[in-house]
Amino acid sequence: MRAKLLNDQPEMTYVLIFDTDDEVMKTLKEFARQKRLSASRFTAIGAFREATLGYFDWQTKDYRRIAVPEQVEVLSLIGDVTDGAQGEPKLHAHVVVGKSDGTAHDGHLLEAVVRPTLEVILVESPRHLRRRHDPESGLALIRLEELPPYTNI
C-alpha cells in the first residue's frame, strides 16, 4: 500500500492506494496504528480478489461469516477508525461488492485481498472517538459521553 497526505488543516486527509495482494483490514489497521488515528472516516472503491463479509447475528452476538471467493468490484466501502481497547485502533467497515452477474453482496468487511487496486480516502478528525464494550450487544460502540466538550478554537 502506498499513502500520501493530501491535506493537514483542519483535518488530515490521506489517499491510500492498495495494490494487488494487499490485505485490506490488516494493512489499514497497521496504517492507523502508525499514524495514531483515533477519529477517522474513510471511503473506497476498487476491486477484491476475494473477501469475507460479516452479518451480525443478534442472537449469538457474533458475526456470521460470508465468504466471497471470487473477483468482485467494490461498489462502496465506508468505515471509521476509533480508539479501541488499550489504545489500539478499532476499524469498523461496511462494504457492498458486485459480482460479474450483476448481483451485489454486503456486510461488515472482515477480510479482503485486493486485485488490482483499492483507492481509499481517509480523513482524520482532530478529536478522538472511543469505543467501549456494550454488554447488551456484545459490541464495542462509540461513546459520545466520553468526548470532552466542544470548544471553538
Q: What labels would you give this structure?
A:
153 residues, mainly beta, two-stranded antiparallel sheet, single chain, 60s Ribosomal Protein L30, Chain: A, 7-stranded antiparallel beta sheet, 58% strand, 9 strands
Account of the 3D structure:
With 153 residues, the chain is mainly beta. The chain has a single domain (2-128), classed as 60s Ribosomal Protein L30, Chain: A. The chain is 8% helix and 58% strand. The protein is built from 1 helix and 9 strands; from the N terminus they run ββαβββββββ. The chain has one helix spanning 24-35, and strands at 2-7, 12-19, 39-57, 62-68, 72-83, 89-98, 104-124, 131-133, 140-142. The strands form 2 sheets. Strands 1, 2, 3, 4, 5, 6 and 7 form a 7-stranded antiparallel sheet that branches. β3 and β4 form a beta hairpin. The protein is flat. The relative contact order is 0.27.
CATH architecture: 2-Layer Sandwich
Structural class: mainly beta
The helicity comes to under 10%
The number of helical elements comes to 1
CATH fold assignment:
60s Ribosomal Protein L30, Chain: A
